């Protein structure tokens, strides 16, 4: 069985090719969880409100949320040290030029390029007098983005994560880099952020939205803590947009995503179009989105190659069952991207001044 798994991983280490697609979904729905953490039910939303629930349903959903968040925290408690040891301080995809040939040393540069490209896409001003002075990093990992943004803009940054191990390590790295006076990290729930309204000039969410069981509440919190005129950047995994004649994904697509959810502690997925619709209902300005799937194509094959080195393989085995389960699911991510089910999306907007 182990030999079969390793050969399967090896077959998935070459780069795949994806062609950009335009948004096409006009029948917008949103996904919520019900029954068990990863079960699915399609529910229309109006504004940022979910469908009306009974008290019993609310209790069940709250219990599911707590269970999901515990799994997320434990997953990253286990795996963050391995990731940092092999890939460095940035726990997110890299941004590559399509069809480029990259070496292992290029991947960390690509992760920095992902941050730079995201800022550029959001049209943050090059005028230093207009740079953000305060930043929140929602789902901060071990704080790579926060420290980069603090250095670039001279801003004060605070990062939140569900993982105590990540928060502790992020603060240690900030101190080691002389940024303890600028950057801090804490354990907190992105759906109930411990910040007052309108506090941050830049609200940054780099690959954390996929972990959020309540997307309207997640987006609502990002908007709430953004200062008037502030910029919101969401970079996240989505499923493809539905066609006008579709009400849901195909059964095989749902099955593939469920397997990924079970391994990476993800709730139900949503599409880029659904994120855009949520932001539109909140009267935000300059809403933009793009499918960056072609630009992250070398990432998962590279992660698998690093896992198949002796250092990577032994580190995964020592880390725990959650990390092993996640590692074995990596080929499913490649399959999802290849078949167009998974999209790597960026969505940005600006909160009105008044």
What does this structure look like?
The protein is an alpha/beta fold. It has helices at residues 2-11, 55-87, 106-121, 144-153, 164-176, 215-225, 251-264, 272-281, 299-307, 310-319, 321-328, 330-338; strands at 30-34, 36-43, 134-138, 156-161, 183-187, 200-206, 226-239, 285-291, 342-350. The strands form two sheets. A seven-stranded mixed beta sheet has the order 5-4-3-6-7-9-8, with helices on both faces. The radius of gyration is 19 Å and the shape is globular. The model is unreliable at 1-50 (pLDDT under 50).
Q: How many DSSP helices?
A: 12
Pattern of helices and strands? HEEHHEHEHEEHEHHEHHHHE
Percent in helix: 40-55%
CATH topology-level fold name: Rossmann fold
* Main sheet record: 7 strands, mixed
Return Rg in Å.
19 Å
How much strand?
15-25%
- Average of the residue pLDDT scores: 83
Q: Please state the structural category.
A: alpha/beta
Give the distance, in angstroms, between the N- and C-terminal Cα atoms. 60 Å
How many structural domains can be distinguished in the coordinates? 1
Biggest sheet, spatial arrangement of strands: 5-4-3-6-7-9-8
Tally the beta strands: 9
What is the CATH superfamily? Vaccinia Virus protein VP39
